[in-house]
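Reply to dn_fold:

You asked what the input looked like. This is it:
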Amino acid sequence: MEKKVNYIPAVRSFRQKKVGIYCRVSTNDTEQLNSLTNQISALTRLVSTVDEWRLVDCYVDIASAKKKSPRANFERMLEDCKNKKLDIVITKSVSRFGRDTVDTLKALNLMKEYEVRVIFEQESLDTKDVESSLMISIIESLAQAENEARSDNIKWGIRQRAAQGTSKLYDRKSYGYDHDKIWC
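and this is what came back:
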């Protein structure tokens, strides 16, 4: 008697990874908003090219990292990571993720604790790779130093123009003031 065997091919079962996109710009100037649109568009296309990824949410902040502006969507993203709503976060670059080294590394450590992978597209860095952690720290420190140097240069330029009397900051009319008395 011949046994009949039904062959059932193996089906690879995989769980789709829940992906979030984080984008940030410093101001709401037209140029910055165009950059924001480009970030969202490029990262959305990237997510759509990987079958195992499913875009869950897009977190967008318009806030200067230098001024410690509140980043509500960044905080919401961290909360979603904590609540297991995300497996992967993709962002354009380390400098878009944050410019303060300590805060950025704290956030990355939290996300690692929550078992959420962070991918920095521009630098091709991924927190699942051990080597990436050192590079992220270095790049983040350089971004913070660059931001501080730029701020110092702008302040120095303003002071120099004010001292030389060429600053346009003080050319504005002072509405609401009368200059009818000379004070000594």
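The chain has five helices and five strands.
Hope that clears it up.
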